[in-house]
């Protein structure tokens, strides 16, 4: 057995970032920038008011009440037509440009209007409620550095700056294939010994949820030539391949036979439970993840190896999920066996604490309990932990 760290380092090493591409901002949510983003414009592009009220000359307001003549009304999106002279004010709406001559805004609540005149209470300091040009981002500033993960807010900033396309790393196209004579996927009544293919849907969905571009390569029977043809076609059209099943010690594990022939594979036994076996290798630049067939094992193996590898290809600066500290709401017991155990749990925040509740049904074939869990408790080799103790969890999304 090798350690989780060794296996993961081996995988990540072979999952290099793909060449950068130009992406429309409308398509870029969740992608990683492949270049520094430099502002071509300032934000805000012009000095404007943060309040509805009156643009004034602060030096005019020397008394408790000052009466000023209103020379115009400036709406957002309109350019002021009048320069303010002593004794004058312009009515102004939030976001509208500040007129020449004005150096402060008085909010409407501190004024009373009488025809073409406004009376202002008190004084203001210069710059009051004015948002200067470039206050948020100045032209030529570095807005986002290379390697930023683009959130909704980032995309809003890019739109604010008139940037419609940016350099990103592409979503890897991830081909997912199921193999096994026992599997059916067309809803027919099961013949003796048959089960339904679940891994393909699960893995395609995990890949979609993580922002990759999943490609369904189908369900292939345990026939060596068909497995080879499907894998070669997948390698041709995808950036990475995920298989499930057929990589252990069984007599009909043809995936293993084919991958040994066409790919540069390493067959690993990793000190974790579930998901001990992992086949990983490459054909040229294309990584191949041979995940175990048991449904829960395939999901855990995806989480620990495929997801970080694929996120590396996509340029994520932190491809591996960080674990959080929770409090065990019940004992999470285990036996010492030299492995890290990943136990299905529910984890919920209550009053700021992450409460980790154990679940029954920890067999690696028990997919329903995996579906109901939202986290994996990480139990280092040993006896597990007692109720009330701190436990590390991977919060799955
Ligand atoms: P294998 O690794 O092929 O020996 O499969 C291990 C276990 O996982 C067996 O019980 C298989 O029936 C099951 N299995 C393999 N592939 C799938 C799949 N795509 N969906 C559901 N179960 C599967
Ligand atoms: Mg099989």
Description:
The protein folds into 4 domains: 4-18 and 171-313, Molybdenum Cofactor Biosythetic Enzyme, Chain A (3-Layer(aba) Sandwich); 21-43 and 135-169, Molybdopterin biosynthesis moea protein, domain 2 (Alpha-Beta Complex); 48-131, Molybdopterin biosynthesis moea protein, domain 3 (Molybdopterin biosynthesis moeA protein, domain 3); 324-395, Beta Barrel (Beta-clip). 20% of the residues lie in helices and 33% in strands. It is built from 7 helices and 28 strands. The chain has helices at residues 4-13, 152-160, 199-209, 224-237, 254-262, 295-313, 367-372, and strands at 21-24, 37-38, 48-49, 53-56, 65-74, 88-92, 104-107, 111-114, 117-121, 130-131, 142-144, 165-168, 173-179, 183-184, 195-196, 213-220, 240-244, 264-269, 272-273, 277-283, 286-291, 324-328, 332-333, 340-350, 353-358, 375-379, 384-385, 390-395. The strands form 8 sheets. The chain has a 6-stranded mixed beta sheet with strand order 7-4-6-5-9-8, with no helix packed on it. The protein has a 6-stranded mixed beta sheet with strand order 16-13-17-21-20-18, with helices on both faces. A hairpin with a 2-residue loop joins strand 24 and strand 25 (353-358). It starts with a helix and ends with a strand. The site of magnesium ion has 4 residues, from loops. Adenosine monophosphate (AMP) binds next to helix 3.
**Which descriptor suits the 3D outline?**
elongated
Number of helices, where a helix is a run of at least 4 consecutive DSSP H or I residues? 7
Mean pLDDT: 96
Percent helix? 10-25%
Output the structural class: alpha/beta
Task: Say which molecules are bound, naming each kind only once.
Answer: adenosine monophosphate, magnesium ion
**CATH homology superfamily of the largest domain:** MoaB/Mog-like domain
Q: For the record, what CATH class of the largest domain applies? A: Alpha Beta
Distance between the termini: 29 Å
* Largest sheet, strands/sense/barrel: 6 strands, mixed
Low-confidence stretches: none
Please tell me the CATH architecture of the largest domain by its name.
Answer: 3-Layer(aba) Sandwich
Number of strands: 28
CATH topology grouping of the largest domain = Molybdenum Cofactor Biosythetic Enzyme, Chain A
Strand content: 25-35%
Number of domains: 4
Rg is 31 Å
